[in-house]
Structure formats: structure tokens, C-alpha cells
């Protein structure tokens, strides 16, 4: 059974605090499972489906640095301390990666997480390799490094401590308020041109954010993050990504203006991408929350993706193609120019890098 053939027995109800409504099959699934009522009560006292709990499994990572060979991404290395993300953003392009764990890109992606418990030690070993040379590095490029699990596990902080010790430049992209906890490490690094932050801000509408990104910080809280980071000298950019036609796309200029007023200096924006199972998940979400717009949204997405739900080619996957993609790009460029928001990458000082010493023997600054 292919994921494109899958349909639930009945339209699923939305689950409070979750982006997906079902644990849809992944593309490697060999079994066809169907839900069946066995007569036993499954609901809570109010008659709604019992909310799924978040489960976190800690596993060691053999390597923590992922290398990027894509010419349309602004960094060469990335670190993702977690697989899966409790924020539950329905549009997340990383959802299909849960299929490699034999888990669903739907509910499993946001409820069955993997924490790379040894991330800091693995990073120390890789940075200590004789031939290692520093390149542009981003934390949280696929799954948010400040999702709720980080409050207790502190894996991201451990990674930052290693990067700080060896003066390795890096950036963080997040929509989590947890980044404030680590300002004691991040602000001194920014002063040495070793760190910048990007805050993901897709909408200013709290109601839309609640169903689009159910467990992420509110839009108002993210604007506060920009202000707080800027106040301690950290250069901040804003990611207005993804832009979803007829959903958050009409707000593009307003979101950029609010971010700039809060202190953002740079900006980028990427049209919605729907790789693999994400297309089915997102279309299900549209039918649950915006049924009157669903057909128009998907028609516009396909216009910008060569008639398909997704186009993975380098050069177009981050920009889209066609008339509508170009109009969206021009709106973004003109808004950034009017607001004084740069679109270039932040400048780092790579000359400060020194390989880290044995664990526990380094100096942070």
C-alpha cells in the first residue's frame, strides 16, 4: 500500500495540541492496518479522543554533524539534537524522515521522539579530527533544537558548550522560547562574530499559529525573543517560512514589518514544500481547518511546483517557479528593501576556531 492510497475510515477529529490527526502509514509500510471499534471505550470523559502522550527515547549518535551539498541552502553543516519535533508544525518538511525509523510522519513525528543523548561528546570527537576545518553550521535546521524536551535533557546546551569552547561559528534557527536560557553562552559568542540567531515567524495571528504550529511559542512570544536577543547584542534574522498560499501568505509584509520593528536585521522566506507523505498530511489538515480554501491552496502550490505537489530540484525547491512564485519573490524583496532588512548571510570570524580538548578540560571563552 502506498501512502498516496491511504485514507482514514472517517474524517479524523483534530487533536488539541497536535498538528496531525492520525498516525498515517509511512511510505515503507508493508502492512495495511485499519482501525476497528472493539466496543471498549477509547475516549476521555468529555467524549473526545484521548490525546497521545509524548514519548522520548534516548539513543547514542555515531555522528552528529550532517553535511549539506545543496547549493540553495546557506550552510554546509547542520546539527539536529532530536529526531521528531513536539512543536507539531503541520508543514514541517522533516516529517517524512520519521519513515526511516519505521514510524509515522503524522502523529509519531510529534509524539515519538529520539534524543541524541551523546550529541556533545560526538561533536567533540568530530571537531577534534585532524582534517576538520570549520564551515557554516546551523543548529535546528530540520527539527527544533529548543522543543519542549530540551528543558530537561539540555542536549542543545551541551552542543553549544562544545562549540563555544573551540570558537566554532554557528547559527540557530528556532521558534522555541528556550533559547533565552542559553543567552549566557550565546551573547559572548555573538560579540566575537561567532553566532547569530534566526527566529521562525510564520504568522502574527495566534489562532492560525495554534493550529499550524500547535506547541511552538506564540507569535507575540517570538517577537519578544527577537527583542531580547537583539538587546544583548545577538544579530537576529527572521524566517517567514513556509509561505502557504491563502493561509499565511497574505501576511508576508506585516510579518516582516513586525520582525523588523522588534530588531530583526535579516530575513528569508521559502514557499511551502510538500515532499513525500507531507502532501497527504497537509491536505488532510487543510480539509480539517480550512475546507473552503483547500482546493485553491493546492492549486496555487502546484502552480509554483511545476504542476506537482512538490519539486525537489536544486535551484527551484526553495523558491518555486512560475508567475506566482515570482510575484511572491518580488513582494518579499520589495518589503525587505523598504524595511531595511538584509537578505545576505551573516559574516562570521572563522579564524578563531581551535579544536576542542578532551571533555571537561576546555575553556569556554
UniProtKB/TrEMBL annotation:
CDD domains: Radical_SAM (cd01335). Keywords: Iron, Iron-sulfur, Metal-binding. Residues 26-36 have a biased composition (Basic and acidic residues). The keyword Iron-sulfur applies. Residues 1-67 are annotated as: Disordered. Residues 37-47 have a biased composition (Acidic residues). InterPro entries: Elp3/MiaA/NifB-like_rSAM, MJ0683-like, rSAM, rSAM_sf. Signal peptide: none annotated. It comes from the Bacteria. Pfam families: Radical_SAM. Gene3D superfamilies: 3.80.30.30. GO terms for molecular function: catalytic activity; iron-sulfur cluster binding; metal ion binding. Residues 71-308 form the Radical SAM core domain. NCBIfam families: rSAM_PA0069. This is PA0069 family radical SAM protein. It comes from Inhella proteolytica. The lineage of its organism: Bacteria, Pseudomonadati, Pseudomonadota, Betaproteobacteria, Burkholderiales.
Amino acid at each position: 500500500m502506498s501512502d498516496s492510497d491511504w485514507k482514514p475510515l472517517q474524517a479524523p477529529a483534530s487533536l488539541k495540541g497536535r498538528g496531525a490527526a492520525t498516525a498515517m502509514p509511512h511510505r515503507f509500510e508493508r502492512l495495511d492496518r485499519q482501525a476497528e471499534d472493539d466496543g471498549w471505550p477509547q475516549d476521555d470523559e468529555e467524549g473526545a479522543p484521548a490525546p497521545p502522550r509524548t514519548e522520548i527515547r534516548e539513543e547514542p549518535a555515531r555522528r552528529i554533524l550532517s553535511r549539506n551539498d545543496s547549493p540553495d541552502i546557506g550552510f554546509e553543516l547542520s546539527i539536529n539534537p532530536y529526531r521528531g519535533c513536539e512543536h507539531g508544525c503541520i508543514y514541517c518538511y522533516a516529517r517524512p524522515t520519521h519513515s526511516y525509523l519505521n514510524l509515522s510522519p503524522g502523529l509519531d513525528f510529534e509524539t515519538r521522539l529520539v534524543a541524541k543523548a551523546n550529541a556533545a561528546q560526538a561533536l567533540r570527537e568530530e571537531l577534534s579530527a585532524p582534517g576538520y576545518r570549520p564551515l557554516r553550521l546551523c543548529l535546528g535546521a530540520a527539527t527544533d533544537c529548543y522543543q519542549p524536551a530540551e528543558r530537561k535533557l539540555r542536549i542543545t546546551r551541551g552542543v553549544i558548550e562544545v562549540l563555544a569552547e573551540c570558537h566554532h561559528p554557528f547559527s540557530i534557527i528556532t521558534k522555541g522560547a528556550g533559547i533565552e536560557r542559553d543567552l549566557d553562552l550565546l551573547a559572548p559568542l555573538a560579540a566575537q562574530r561567532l553566532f547569530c540567531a534566526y527566529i521562525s515567524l510564520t504568522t502574527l495571528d495566534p489562532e492560525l499559529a495554534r493550529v499550524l504550529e500547535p506547541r511552538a511559542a506564540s507569535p507575540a512570544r517570538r517577537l519578544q525573543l527577537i527583542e531580547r536577543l537583539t538587546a544583548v547584542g545577538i544579530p537576529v534574522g527572521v524566517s517567514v517560512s513556509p509561505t502557504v498560499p491563502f493561509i499565511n501568505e497574505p501576511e508576508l509584509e506585516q510579518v516582516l514589518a513586525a520582525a523588523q520593528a522588534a530588531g530583526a536585521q535579516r530575513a528569508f522566506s521559502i514557499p511551502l514544500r510538500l515532499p513525500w507523505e507531507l502532501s497527504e498530511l497537509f491536505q488532510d489538515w487543510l480539509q480539517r481547518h480550512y475546507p473552503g480554501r483547500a482546493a485553491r491552496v493546492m492549486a496555487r502550490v502546484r502552480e509554483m511546483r511545476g504542476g506537482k505537489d512538490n519539486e525537489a530540484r536544486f535551484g527551484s525547491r526553495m523558491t518555486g517557479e512560475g508567475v506566482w512564485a515570482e510575484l511572491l519573490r518580488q513582494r518579499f524583496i520589495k518589503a525587505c528593501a523598504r524595511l531595511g532588512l538584509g537578505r545576505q548571510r551573516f559574516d562570521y570570524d572563522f579564524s578563531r576556531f581551535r579544536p576542542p580538548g578532551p571533555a571537561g578540560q576546555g575553556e569556554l571563552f
